Structure formats: structure tokens, C-alpha cells
Amino acid sequence: MFTASHERISNFSLAALVLLVSLLLANCGGGGGGDSAATTTTTTTATTYTVTYDGNGSTSGSVPIDATAYEAGATVTILGNSGSLSKTGYSFTSWNTLSNGTGTTYVQSQTFLMGSANVTLYAQWAAAPSMLSLGHKLDASTVALWRFDESAVYANAVDETGNYPLTQFGRPEIYTGRIGTSRLLNGSSRYFQRVGDAILGDVFTNDWTYEAWINLDPAFSAQGELMIYNGSNFSAINADTILAEVGVLANKKIYWHQWQNTAAYTEITSTTVLQTGRFYHVAVSRSGQGINLFTYRIYINGVLDTVTTDVAGLDYIVDGDTHTLGLGCVISGLGSAGNVLKGRVDDTRISKIARSAAEVLESYQRKGPLFTSNGDGTTIDNRTGLVWITSPDSTTRTWSMSDYDSKALDFAGNADWRLPAIHELQGVIQDWTGASPSAWLASQGFSNVQPIFYWSITTNATFSNNAETVVIDQ
Predict the structure, then answer these.
(1) What average pLDDT is seen over the chain?
(2) Which end of the chain is more exposed for a tag (fewer CB within 10 A), N or C?
(3) CATH class entry, domain 131-365
């Protein structure tokens, strides 16, 4: 206590002493007692600087106003896009010290030390991709194309061709998709079906391609159908035999079935094992190669995974005009289903040709960005729909401290923050390329990501008082 008090008094006394000396000098004579010129004291005001925000081509909204006068060395905290600044055809991403974006980039709540000059921060804009330029193309070879961009759970799936809308059962929920939104199937009662016709029957007895974005639920554990075209008694009556079938096995491999009759089929699986909680572009094509022989190809994320030739077709003719089309289920009658997928389906196309490798790759590449800045210091992962803080702080904490601070955080207008689960933390860097995951995240718009371990909320299986971690650069 004494030391602290003495320090405060010392500081105050020193200031008083300086003032006292000035007064004495101003009133004391000099030399032989004659009058002397009085010394004068002067005061100066510290130079201050400003931070100005510039819309940089914005078409609506207003820039944030920072009214603080900063001295050199003072800490400046970056403001967010509080005035809903916008630019037609673009989305706000960050602020930059240069209008062309080649200076220093800042996002909300970042800080810097004021220098000896005024600072102007320019809004940075990224071209907003048109939804019309994303996803599978609607072309002359497209038989059906479901975007799954419905706005209500009770809405049926709209077919872009206008020919084959799908009836929803169980009200599949609406979730973030890989492109726009997706529909969540629950592994039991939520799926899509519709009655077939002669056109679909003709498609599935000749060349065809199935393409879709899918995301397996973290709890996925049982075989789930992606697409099937069958009659209700497919295992008993020749006329109802399955004409096309694509799905995911319990081991998370993509499979297709080519049926020869009601009791026999050929099954081939992908070499790739899908991970849960992330979107994959899956494509399966069938092309005729001779009399009742076919070639099947499986593509994962635009890359040919498996090709199988000389696959025998059906032993008999099935026209399929009374079959039923199912997405996410096996059909045992309209409104009755089995092998329901547990996961999300998005942007699904059926074509009446075997798409080439180049066409499948193009479909995969029309996926849009992995991450989108919300312009408020947060970033959404378009693969999962999770929102992340764009520039995490680098303070080291214990697990309990991290958990507490996350739940207490009020940031970007949200107070429901939490630590990520281990699979979510792993998932954010699952597609990294280049020198390191941290460098890749920087290229995706993140900043201040450290090449160290980060806590998850997932409890360690061995030590219940600790949690799992992910080392960003390992």
C-alpha cells in the first residue's frame, strides 16, 4: 500500500515542483539585484489524428463514423459495417488502407496503433456470385433439376425444368446448402418422391447421369439411398424391377446397383470414403457399350473415382412408365419408404446422357466460394453453415477459460457463441491446399490464425476434465 501511494504522490509532486520552479524563476531577480527579464512558460496541445471510413463506390447505406481524436501511438479499434453499407452486385468484406485493396486489410474489432498521419479506410467489395451462374446447368440434356431452395419445410421440391416436382414427406428441414439452401433428410421419415412416366422410364433404360451435392449427418450410420427408380414390388414382379439406384453404404462409400432381375444385381462402390459434416459433389453415370452391356463411372468432387465396364443389364425388358422416383429413399409405395438418407441434399440433376468427365468437373467447379464474409468480423462456412470469427484473438487459455469466454462473448450482434465440436474444427480446414492450413485460411479471408492447437468443446475420451484439440499446422 505504501509503495503504491508513494508512487502516486511522487508523480504528483514532480509536476508541482516543475510548476513551482517556473514561478520562482519568473519572480526572482538576477545578478546584482537589478530587474531581470521574467521567464515565460508555454503550453502545447498534443497533435491528434483521425480515422475516416470511405464507402469506396457504395450505392446505399452509410459509413461508420469514428469521432475519436487519436494521438500517435493510441490504439484504434476497427468499426463494423454498422450503417448497412452496400454496393449493387457486390458484398462487403472488409476495410483496407488503400482503395484498390493492396494496403492493410482490417475487419471489425481488429486494432492498430495510430501513426503520425490521418487514416482513411476504404470499404472492400467482392463480386456477389449470381445464383444463376452456380450449380448444375439447365441444358437440353437435363431431365430434372432440383435446387432445393424452397423457403418452407412443407414446400415440395421445385424442378427447374417444370416437369418433375418432388412431393416432400415429413417436411424435410431447410438448411444451408453448398449452393443456396438444402433440405435435411432425417434417416426415417423425411424424403422426396414422385410418380414416374414413360419419359423417365426411357431415360433409365438407356444412358443417364445422376449428380448431386450431399452432406452426411455426423450421426450417419446406416445405408441411405440417394436416388432410385423402382416399382413398388421390385423384388417380386419383373415389371417393377429397379431401373436405377445410387446410394451411400454404412461405410460411407458411394455405390450403384445394376439389377439383372428381381433377385440379382451388380454392386460397385467408390474407393473414396465420405466424411460426415461436409458437402461432396457426387456423380454416377451409365453409358451403353454394346448389347445389354454398360459402363458405370463414379465421380467424387469432379474427379473420376471408379470406372466399371461390361456390366450386364436386365435379363428382360422393363419400360418403367409406372415406376416411382425417390430421392433419399427406397420406395415401397408412394408415401412409404426405407433406407432413408440421414443428411442434406442440395442441387440435384438427372440427365438423359452419360455426362463426360469434363462436364462433371464443370458441375463441381460451379460451387461458389467456400467462405463468405458477413462484413461484421464474422465469416460463414458455406459447406456447413457455421459462422466463425474472422480474426480470432491469439490469447492462450485453458479449456475451461476458453469455454467460459466463448459463452460470455457478445460479438457482431450475437451472444450465442460457443467452442466448435471437434469435427467442426477439423472441417473448417478440410479442403486446405498450399503451404499450410493457416496460410490457406488467410487466403480465404481469415486473419490472425495461429499455427498452434485450438480447443474444441468435445470432451477427451480418456480424460473427461479435458477436451480434444486441433493443431492448425501440424
Answers:
(1) 85
(2) N
(3) mainly beta
